[in-house]
Amino acid sequence: MHTNGRELAFPDGFLWGAATAAHQIEGNNINSDWWVREHAAGTSIVEPSGDAMDSYHRYREDMTLLRDAGLDAYRFSIEWARIEPEKGFVSNAEIDHYRRMVGTALELGLTPMVTLLHFTVPRWFADDGMWRSPEAADRFARYTELALRVLGDDVEWVCTINEPNIAAMIAGGEDPANLVAYGLPDPDLHVADTLLECHRRAREILAASGRTRSGWTVATQAFQAEPGCEEVAREYGHKRDDWYLEAAKGDDWVGVQAYTRTIIGPDGPRQVPDGVETTLTGWEYYPAALAEGVRAAWRLTGGVPVVVTENGIATDDDARRVDYTEAALAGLHAAMQDGVEVEGYLHWSLLDNYEWASGFRPTFGLVSVDRTTFERTPKPSLAWLGSVARDGVLRVR
Predict the structure, then answer these.
(1) C-alpha separations of 114 from 80, 102, 106, 152, 311 in Å
(2) Whether residue 122 has pLDDT greater than 70
(3) What pLDDT score does 3 carry?
């Protein structure tokens, strides 16, 4: 229950923004492995990404909407499949394209956070064994060196790998349509080890450049044990969440991406019970997941600074989006008051976009997009979050 009239102040310099991922918004990422999945015969993916939101051409408009609302940070990813569409062939034009995105963000007064890998990889890399290839870490290191040209000397925040815990499930061969919050499959632990090696190699390269703070982001699931099931929950959650947070010890920061919770019974995860409010993804409406994920990250990393790199809700009811975000931010503020160092909040997502195996139906965006004309229409939630950012104060209703 809300307490009327509470004003929760966030610290000066706190980053307020939104996040996107290249494949989900750019369109026509034809050299990526996911494009192949989308168009394969008999695919379980409900629809292809196609033109997506055409943000490849409209990124300035997108960033301007974010800036004009009062937000000051933008997380976006760059596509390895565009930069190195064939093994050993480097597209200078695509490097220049992403460098222009960085320049546009800076010109608009936005702090850019650049993600090097947000799930998708080049076709050739997938064909060569992907994360099971003995050359995977060398190839990712080479890609990171190419990305230095995108980052220049003015990008402070770099995410090496988005959600390696989910990537380990996808790269392990699991049907992406089965990647649901309840009953996540076992990750491929060899793939997890390889992803960690890639992350550490990338961090070495970034650190040697002397210009960036780097980390990776983890999809935290807020695993909660039924009475007597604490050991089941610990075992279930460690290889899906905690291991990746523990691996971030010593990093410059760690990203938390939180949406919902999972109840663990004696036989593992429970389905959401009947009568509980759910979102368009079928997840339980549970804004407390954010604070739980942030507290877990702080504890398991031994005090690595946290950035909320994704948090949001798939809904057609924008007022409910505001309700969810308000409650999530109130919990985040409480965690910060308890000593957890949090440096920013990036909402997922700036735009309604392509949500992988679910297609375009789940709408997470602060901005809607007409998929024929690509006209952008800001939702009231964008103005609301922007007002929180401008004032640095959350007014809890």
Answers:
(1) 13, 8, 12, 11, 17
(2) yes
(3) 43
* Through-space distance between the first and last CA atoms of the chain, rounded to whole angstroms: 10
Check whether domain 6-396 has CATH 3.20.20.80, yes or no:
yes
Whether the CB-CB separation of 253 and 343 falls below 8 Å is answered with: yes
* Cβ–Cβ under 8 Å, residues 43 and 345: no
CA 176 – CA 172 distance, rounded (Å): 10
Contact 316, 28 (CB under 8 A): no
**Digit-coded pLDDT (tens) for 18-57:** 999 999 999 999 999 999 999 999 998 999 999 999 999 9
Cβ atoms within 10 A of the Cβ of 377, count? 12
Backbone angles phi, psi at 212, to 5 degrees: -135, 155
Confidence label for 60 from pLDDT (cuts 50, 70 and 90): very high
- Would the pTM count as exceeding 0.90? yes
Residue ranges of the domains in the chain?
6-396
